[in-house]
Amino acid sequence: MRLLPAGDHALLVELASLDEVLGYYTALAEDPPEGVVDIVPAARTVLVTTTGELDGLARRLGAIEPLAGSRGTGDLIEIPVVYDGEDLQDVAELLGCSQREVIERHTAEEWTVAFCGFSPGFGYLTGAGDWDVPRRKSPRTKVPAGAVALAGEFSGVYPRESPGGWQLLGRTEVKIFDQDRRLAALLHPGRRVRFTDTGRR
Amino acid sequence: MTLTVLETGPLATIQDRGRTGQAALGVPRSGACDQRSYELANRLVGNRPGAAAVEVTFGGLVLLAGADVVVAVTGAPCPGVPLNAPATLRAGQVLRLGPPRSGLRTYIAVRGGVDVPPVLGSRSTDLLSGLGPAPLQPGDTLAVGDAHDPMPGVDLAPVPDPPAGEVVISVTPGPRRDWFTDAAWTSFTTQRYGVSSNSNRVGVRLEGTPLERARDGELASEGMTLGAIQIPPSGLPVVFLADHPVTGGYPVIAYVAAGSLPYCAQLRPGQSARFTC
């Protein structure tokens, strides 16, 4: 673990792996030091912003042990998907299997929300499987809300219409982000996700 | 009690202290770019901290009072209005902001605060994420909330105007300082940058001599906070302001010191800036 400077009010904790990030975030979010206002997990780092002073925060952050096995402890959400995405065939070719097998792999996986970013409520979901799907060579200027997609080691669902370069597998009608809901973001770090196939195309 | 928007100028939005505590869900902080001027405007009309005010970019806003209201105008000094002082706007009177003499962003607080429904705990317009009220349009009416606290009994706050010439911005080394050569760091802290017209509430884009990286490769996206100075592949710095995304994929060479953030918010296109560590 390395603590890196990030201005007058924040420190960046650099960790060895995504699993360590999940474990560190879980441990930190359970008992955040006084004055901490925001905790932002990402692929290899956790950014911690405080209203307090940095020396004390650094001591507290340095003493936190990532919880082992944090993946798979959050509550489970089911997201029904219509697997008719425009990139389904491309993904099948990239993974060397059939479209049917892509759907089976995607629905068999238990995904965990590792972190959010890109836009409000956009969760980066990681699975146990060996996913490694490149982004599209040219990003779309418009990806519709509810699009279910893959990129790199992650799967995700677009919370609202936006540009995007992820490979589209299908779509869901579940509202991923609803600013009028008490918990606006459905996919917050630590939650588990299972995609189900509605059978409709 | 309402204010009616007659003209907006280039951009006018509702802003408060922003949405803190939700960055882990991908919700940016947003809020007033120049928090110092925004807070002062609220204090001058006796508002509670966090009341919503109007942020005006490069003047041009015209407001019509529907009833007697007390307002205060702070930040970039626009001709035609009383600055850094509470003033009563009578029913039927018009507040008209000319183009600022220096700086970029002007704040108008009204006693009682602008009363729009909060979204995720804030009344701020976030242009990047599309949260909060839309930017103001001519014809909009703004409801004014109830006053809670007494007036502060201050006639004038003697604060300097945002500087017009070269602005010196204090920075501290960022988490990815080591992604750049020492020569790049020297260049970063000595050269005179120009503020690009491509700047907005997300960030101030700078023009100058590109910085050289010490290492290649991609950085995994990581959390960034206000004042992060990202260096994209162009080698030219971008200073993150209020509507910046919560994560970014370019290395952060430095952070703006908290005391210098209001100056960054007031930089206008064509102005020059230097960083000092």
Automatic annotation (TrEMBL), chain A:
The keyword ATP-binding applies. The keyword ATP-binding applies. Residues 1-187 form the Carboxyltransferase domain. Coiled coil: none annotated. It holds the Pfam family CT_C_D. Keywords: ATP-binding, Hydrolase, Nucleotide-binding. One of its GO terms (molecular function) is hydrolase activity. It comes from the Bacteria. SUPFAM superfamilies: Cyclophilin-like, PH0987 N-terminal domain-like. PANTHER family: 5-OXOPROLINASE SUBUNIT B. This is KipI family sensor histidine kinase inhibitor. The lineage of its organism: Bacteria, Bacillati, Actinomycetota, Actinomycetes, Propionibacteriales.
TrEMBL record, chain B:
PANTHER family: 5-OXOPROLINASE SUBUNIT C. Pfam families: CT_A_B (PF02626). This is Biotin-dependent carboxylase-like uncharacterized protein. Residues 24-277 form the Carboxyltransferase domain. InterPro entries: CT_A_B (IPR003778), Cyclophilin-like_dom_sf (IPR029000), PxpC (IPR052708). One of its GO terms (molecular function) is hydrolase activity. Gene3D superfamilies: Cyclophilin-like. Keywords: ATP-binding, Hydrolase, Nucleotide-binding.
